[in-house]
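Handout, section B. The chain below has 108 residues.
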Amino acid sequence: MCCFVLQVQRCLQSTQPVPAARLPYRVKLSAGKRYAWCACGHSKKQPFCDGTHKAKAPSISPLLFTADKNKTVMLCACKQTKNSPYCDGSHLKVIYRDVVKYVKGLFK
């Protein structure tokens, strides 16, 4: 029975990031302030880390960064960007994938 509980817990943990949202977050950053961008997608304080990854995605750590100046940026919410933590437009692929999945579901 103990092995079963461990196996179930392992299944509930993510090894891949999950999209927190389909569109990026517009965020005002303050110069010199340190931020922890959620890389796993499980945080309830998106786009920033709230520590949820420790239980839900222990293999995925937040990205720590410091803003070099006061500025407004678009931070990735789909977690697929190649330019973490900033949006690079990858959410368009996520949206397309979701639409294709939905359309295929209509014909089942």
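Note. Strands lie at 25-29, 34-37, 63-66, 71-75. Compare this with the example in section A.
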